[in-house]
Amino acid sequence: MATGKLMDLDQWRRARFAGDPPSETTIRRWCREGHVPAKKIGGTWFVDLDAERRQTGNELADQVLGTMGV
Length: 70
What we know:
Layout: E1 6-8, H1 9-16, H2 24-33, E2 38-41, E3 44-48, H3 49-54, H4 59-68
Antiparallel strand pairs: 1-3, 2-3
């Protein structure tokens, strides 16, 4: 995964979800499972904001575009 602009997972969680965001445990699971384009550096997760912006919401389309380097 090419790395773009990174944001700390907790900052991203608070910025992305207004009101009552999902728990940190849930967000970390999403990162491990690949639902959130994130990278673990040391023991801390960071969300790749550029990769998130490119996501379409369609898992198959995202996989195809990812293999094309788009």
